[in-house]
Amino acid sequence: MNQNTKITVVVGALAVAFLSLAAGFWANAWGHQEAREEIPLVDSQFNTPDTFRQSYAELMRIKADLSDFDCYACHDKGKPPPIRYDKNHNIVVPQEHAGSIVMAHGSHDRNNLCFNCHDEQNLELLQTRDGKQLKLFESTRLCGSCHGPTYRDWDAGVHGRTGGFWDAKPNQERTRLNCVDCHNPHKPKIPGRHPAPPPHMLHPVRQVEHATTH
Amino acid sequence: MNSSNSASGAVQTGDGMNRRSFLRASAVLTTGLAALAASLKPLMELEDFPTAERFMQKYYTELTPTEMDKVLKRIADETEAQYGKRPHVRDLKPMDGVEFAYCLNLTRCIGCRKCVHACVKENNQSRNPEIQYIRVLRLPHGSMDMEKAEHHYNPEKVPEPGFFNMPVQCQQCKNPPCVKVCPVHATWTDTDGITVIDYDWCIGCRYCEAACPYWARRFNFTKPFIPKDKLNPEMAYLGNRPRRQGVMEKCHFCIQRTRDGRYPACLEVCPVGARKFGNVLDPSSEVGTILRTKRVFIQLKEELGTSPRFFYYFDV
């Protein structure tokens, strides 16, 4: 085989190799640039710092309608509302309050008297067990009068969420939430909620069904 | 070529090649070159070809302030060209007398995954394929066995009875295996305890991903996709600036926020206040108080000696 033929053979073989490579790319033989499955963007409720509920203090701050808290629009001043119990000694929530109040404070329904926290002489005030009267937006101190260790933790920033600046300075403030920004005072246990969607896998290899591994 | 091989006795060219062999060789050569060009087609699809400026960029610690300004301007230009929004890119340095720590209350966590998605939003993570720094595990009560952990849980309501949830992200180790294995020093631990990645220096070898016992590092196998209107314009060089295909990324305690005095995004969104962050050198800080007064601590996979700056605890 002379020099010319050798070159022709080598270049020809290379050409064939490259052509087959090109054909491979053209036919997408290695799955190159396959279209990916659409992943829906997550609902904005899962990435915004909303709290579970809005407290009276928060409603005051955002200047919302506070007419729901005007007790003496219906009640008479100086005349404490009567408290009624059913046969099992459970408090009967009056019909007018039934939509907004569920009595479930404390396990075994032990804290079930309205006037444990509300002032019976002035329904627009709260009162602690030692008789200290507090405004509705000062409810955190009322909670703290019974829940000592939790109040201590809250005070140190350990219980409940903080926000803003960890490096608190005059114009960089650390924001705090009140107890009732998250807890419903009549039913303080935080209810279950739907979780944000689980991660989408690039290549789904298995399906996880609900409530497995019991 | 040797002229004695020519049987035809035609006119010889100066270098010993006759007309026939020239034509034959050039025809084969043209076909060969065309085939080569066609086989290089995937190169044509390279979108993110590095500019000379980026290619010649120096190592992070060797950049002078003027050079760093140029780099930040280049990043802002590139981001604006791609996303149509001019970002505010900063190079934030660690603060003096600050070492960050993170405490997570496992009694409080309900596994709602809000932290995961707040993190994605804050840190400009790819939405498709999904890149998430936080993986929320669901474990059965009474066990810390990672073999029983599940992170694809999707019940109607959380928390589920009989289970607890444990979010895992970069643990910002004091003795980080990922930093040890990086062959190009593209990742290192800063003085405030954050292990950072220089996305312009990373070569994408994924050694760090293999070394991390917490599965905290994420690799951009494809070009990240972020909808233009979802881009967070507050950026930091070592933090949430957009990444390229082929680089590693991970949780950096929201450098663009925390080195500016703010709380990380995952903490600010937690609906149950399970996440606590701060300067562990300050005894009056939240993390200082927790480490001093709370009782049960877990440094995840403590036995490996990585010494995380991320503490899990329980309280009653």
Can you walk through the features of this model?
The complex is a heterodimer of chains A (214) and B (316). Chain A has 214 residues and is of the alpha+beta class. Chain A contains five helices and four strands; from the N terminus they run ααββααββα. In chain A, α3 (139-146) packs across α4. In chain A, 11% of the residues are buried. Chain B is an alpha+beta fold and 316 residues long. Chain B has a domain at 100-314: Alpha-Beta Plaits. Helix content of chain B is 27%, strand content 15%. Chain B contains ten helices and twelve strands. Chain B has helices spanning 19-39, 41-44, 52-55, 65-83, 114-122, 177-181, 207-211, 255-258, 265-269, 286-293; strands at residues 88-90, 100-105, 135-140, 163-168, 187-189, 195-197, 218-219, 234-236, 248-249, 275-279, 296-298, 310-314. In chain B, the strands form five sheets. In chain B, strands 10-2-12-11 form a four-stranded mixed sheet. In chain B, strands 1-8 form a two-stranded parallel ribbon. A two-stranded antiparallel sheet of chain B has the order 3-4. In chain B, a hairpin with a 5-residue loop joins β5 and β6. Mean pLDDT of chain B is 90; it is low at 1-10. The interface between A and B is large, with 65 and 76 residues.
Give the number of helices of chain A. Answer: 5
Helices and strands of chain A: which structural class? alpha+beta
Share of helix of chain A, binned:
10-25%
Order of helices and strands of chain B: HHHHEEHEEHEEHEEEHHEHEE
Percent of residues in helices of chain B comes to 25-40%
The chain-level structural class of chain B is alpha+beta
Give the SSE order of chain A as H and E letters. Answer: HHEEHHEEH
The chain-level mean pLDDT of chain B equals 90
